[in-house]
């Protein structure tokens, strides 16, 4: 039974169950970790008997322990949110606030305009009063092709929006709708359905062929004055500011074919629509749920708790994931556990897409109890300015010097200049006293495209981990910046991703050194019969099993979890390692390492292998050499170690080496697909022979160092209003761009040197 106050609320917050089991588990694991560390500290071997290797193990375990503590901050008492859209409609239907939607794109070749406009059309078609929606496309590449796509979309919207409303179709991205609804379009007449489908497909063909040829037909250029902005000297890195209003929702002409007016892209929107709520979404994430605006407003408009909520974040969910998530990019555990935990201690992180903000918080407003939001803002008439004057005014706000003159992007509002500026923006909002809410509805609100090759995955995580570590080491470190302003658990929560990159060295150490110790005869764990083995085994097993339990509960499959474990190792020794080294180099003022970017558009073969869940390598890059070397090294160590144990080479009981043999064996099992890619597969996605040879070389080198104990020099390597639609591109000038490039084999050389040193000492 609902109580009276609950009946009034627009959203409910529920505690996630199972906390008693969790807390018992956490307490015993904590005790186990302390015993492990005590053992490490009190049993240090004498110099020359593996002391350096032992101390390295101790350091790695100390790090894992600290990181474990940090990850517990979000598991203590997670919450879930639920909304009541019917109550919102009952109370606020006539007074719903305006919403500005920002869609961001960068490059017409990596993000084809036909994909971008599907996203645009899906958000224009929200189940929300059209005259209150304004859609802005921010094009960082300033491309005429994207502008052309948007112009076509503004024409197609006149048919598409009435069609969506009339039959209440879902999802409202035409690309997704027509690919899913084949055959079951019984809502409307087949004739009407085919008509709209053909219109859509013709439009897509026109856009795709323009992108292919790189040219817009001259007769089309005459149809909108916006095309005049482009001339032959312009490049994606050097152009004037461009703002073009394609549909002006406040004028009478913006009426769709049913006779309705179309829905009207922070600074630019302030002179154009100035809505109190802003949604920003990536260009490849279409809306899969036309009610998402209403769900988000249930938080902002709640009479009791809404006042404190600064932003509402939806998870980033991918629609082209294979069943067992071969690249581990579902983030199921992050969204089902970590974000819910953060939500209970002050607010989830802002992840840069799928997020509704109050406009005021992006302009730096500090939370105060007395502040009353003006939900009617922007809805009134804009005055007597005509659209050209507004475009000129908006242009002055997107010049590259604008930000240099104001504090706008600096101390307040959106934080620029960091690779993961969204995280800082969110932190700054929390530090100004606002809370945030995380909502993960059963039917996904936004669906995007997951990277479908290993190279894209490695690159994406390198960028993320590097950006997050840079923040951790800057004045925006949550412990410094958030000190005294946000809860300790939230400060810790921000570090979970902040310290991803720092996991690289301990992980690399753990997957290499114990295995080498197995061959060299250096015991690094207590023997399996000793009581001291118990905490090691307990911590390892319980932590793994609890992780498995969380993953299964969050919707992963067993195999998906297993793939996730492999990807964690692979990312740690490549993306996170590169991210870590680059961040350190940046801190020391050295230039960045270059990182190979492979094509984003995948071939037919690649797509097929992705469906079959086969790892995609294909090119020769240094990251693959690291992966192959670690895999091969463990295999050789396992074989070598076991044969030496059986031959009784060392005067030590065999079970002294059992834990290392088990660890090494597990690394070998998890790397099975890597061996396959090196030696068995024949397709184009296999590990190239050059990489296999290089890894064999590195393994031999490691053994030479190991056996000689001498160092070698490191080798090289209807009547309704239509939503307004605006195109904008920030001004770009070459002097504002800095390009750093240098050798990429450095990472390999760095860690080889590090290991040869450890081994020599050991
Ligand atoms: C997403 O998956 C589909 C198949 O499920 C594939 O055809 C498509 O190429 C994938 N998208 C990307 C960007 O890889
Ligand atoms: C997307 O929306 C459709 C309904 O249009 C639904 O069937 C599907 O489950 C949703 N996808 C996800 C991942 O929630």
TrEMBL record:
Which residues does the record give as UDP-alpha-D-glucose binding sites? 111, 140
A Pfam family (short name) is Cellulose_synt
Per UniProt, the keywords (alphabetical) are: Cell wall biogenesis/degradation, Glycosyltransferase, Golgi apparatus, Membrane, Transferase, Transmembrane, Transmembrane helix
One GO molecular function term of this record is:
cellulose synthase (UDP-forming) activity
From the record, give the transmembrane residue ranges.
20-40, 52-70, 492-512, 532-549, 624-650, 656-675, 687-707, 740-759
Compartments in which it is found: Golgi apparatus membrane
Q: Which GO terms describe its cellular component?
A: Golgi membrane
Q: How does it sit in the membrane?
A: Multi-pass membrane protein
Look up the record and give one Gene Ontology term from the biological process aspect.
plant-type cell wall organization or biogenesis
Active-site residues annotated for this sequence: 140, 422
InterPro entries registered for this protein in UniProt: Cellulose_synth, Nucleotide-diphossugar_trans
Q: What does this protein do?
A: Thought to be a Golgi-localized beta-glycan synthase that polymerize the backbones of noncellulosic polysaccharides (hemicelluloses) of plant cell wall.
Q: Which family does it belong to?
A: Belongs to the glycosyltransferase 2 family. Plant cellulose synthase-like E subfamily.
List the PANTHER family.
X-BOX TRANSCRIPTION FACTOR-RELATED (PTHR13301)
Report the protein name in the record. Cellulose synthase-like protein E6
């Amino acid at each position: 039974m609902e109580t009276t106050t609950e009946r009034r609320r627009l959203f409910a917050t529920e505690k996630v169950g199972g906390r008693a089991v969790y807390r018992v588990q956490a307490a015993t694991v904590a005790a186990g970790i302390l015993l492990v560390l005590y053992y490490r500290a009190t049993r240090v071997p004498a110099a020359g008997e593996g002391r350096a290797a032992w101390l390295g193990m101790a350091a790695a375990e100390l790090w894992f322990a600290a990181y474990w503590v940090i990850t517990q901050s979000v598991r203590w008492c997670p919450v879930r949110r639920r909304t009541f859209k019917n109550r919102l409609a009952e109370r606020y239907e006539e007074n719903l606030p305006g919403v500005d939607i920002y869609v961001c794109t960068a490059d017409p070749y990596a993000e084809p305009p036909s994909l971008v406009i599907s996203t645009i059309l899906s958000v224009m078609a929200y189940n929300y009063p059209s005259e209150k929606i304004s859609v802005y496309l921010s094009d960082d590449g300033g491309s005429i092709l994207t502008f052309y796509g948007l112009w076509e979309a503004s024409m197609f919207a006149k048919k598409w929006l009435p069609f969506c409303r009339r039959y209440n179709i879902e999802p409202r991205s035409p690309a997704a709708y027509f690919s899913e609804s084949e055959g079951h379009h019984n809502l409307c007449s087949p004739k009407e359905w085919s008509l709209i489908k053909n219109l859509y497909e013709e439009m897509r063909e026109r856009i795709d062929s323009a992108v292919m040829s790189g040219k817009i037909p001259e007769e089309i250029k005459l149809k909108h004055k916006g095309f005049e902005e482009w001339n032959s000297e312009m490049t994606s890195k050097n152009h004037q500011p461009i703002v073009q209003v394609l549909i002006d929702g406040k004028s009478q002409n913006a009426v769709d074919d049913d006779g309705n007016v179309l829905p009207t892209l922070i600074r630019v929107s302030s002179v154009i629509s100035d809505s109190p709520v802003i949604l920003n979404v990536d260009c490849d994430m279409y809306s899969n749920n036309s009610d998402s605006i209403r769900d988000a407003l249930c938080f902002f408009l709640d009479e009791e708790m809404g006042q404190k909520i600064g932003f509402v974040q939806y998870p980033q969910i991918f629609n082209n994931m294979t069943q067992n998530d071969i690249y581990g990019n579902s983030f199921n555990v992050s969204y089902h556990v970590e974000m819910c935990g953060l939500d209970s201690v002050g607010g989830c992180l802002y992840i840069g897409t799928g997020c509704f903000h109050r406009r005021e918080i992006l302009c730096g407003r500090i939370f105060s109890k007395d502040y009353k939001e003006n939900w009617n803002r922007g809805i009134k008439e804009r005055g007597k300015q005509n659209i050209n004057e507004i475009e000129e005014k908006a242009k002055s706000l997107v010049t590259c010097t604008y930000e240099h003159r104001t504090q706008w992007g600096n101390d307040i509002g959106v934080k620029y200049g960091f690779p993961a500026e969204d995280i800082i923006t969110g932190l700054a909002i929390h530090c100004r006293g606002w809370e945030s809410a995380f909502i993960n509805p059963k039917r996904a609100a936004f669906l995007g495209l997951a990277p479908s090759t290993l190279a894209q995955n490695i690159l994406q995580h390198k960028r993320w981990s590097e950006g997050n570590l840079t923040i951790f080491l800057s004045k925006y470190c949550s412990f410094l910046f958030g000190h005294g302003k946000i809860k300790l658990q939230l400060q810790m929560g921000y570090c979970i991703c902040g310290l991803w990159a720092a996991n690289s060295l301990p992980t690399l150490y753990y997957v290499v050194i114990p295995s080498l110790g197995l061959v060299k005869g250096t015991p690094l764990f207590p023997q399996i019969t000793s009581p001291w083995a118990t905490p090691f085994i307990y911590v390892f097993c319980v932590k793994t099993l609890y992780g498995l339990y969380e993953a299964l509960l969050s919707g992963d499959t067993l195999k998906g979890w297993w793939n996730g474990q492999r990807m964690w190792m692979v990312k740690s020794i490549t993306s996170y390692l590169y991210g870590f080294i680059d961040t350190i180099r940046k801190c020391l003022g050295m230039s960045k390492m270059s990182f190979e970017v492979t094509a984003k558009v995948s071939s037919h073969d690649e797509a097929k292998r992705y469906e079959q869940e086969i790892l995609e390598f294909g090119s020769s890059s240094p990251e693959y050499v690291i992966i192959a070397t670690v895999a091969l090294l463990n295999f050789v160590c396992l074989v070598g170690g076991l044969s030496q144990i059986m031959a009784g080479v060392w005067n030590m009981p065999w079970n002294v080496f059992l834990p290392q043999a088990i660890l090494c064996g597990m690394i070998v099992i998890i790397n099975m697909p890597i061996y396959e890619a090196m030696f068995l597969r024949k397709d184009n996605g296999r590990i190239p022979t050059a990489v296999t040879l290089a890894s064999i070389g590195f393994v031999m080198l490691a053994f030479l160092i190991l056996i000689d104990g001498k160092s070698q020099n490191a080798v090289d390597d209807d009547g309704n209003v239509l939503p307004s639609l605006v195109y904008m591109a920030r001004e770009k000038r070459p002097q504002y761009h800095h390009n750093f490039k240098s050798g990429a084999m450095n990472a390999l050389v760095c860690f080889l040197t590090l290991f040869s040193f450890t081994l020599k000492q050991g």
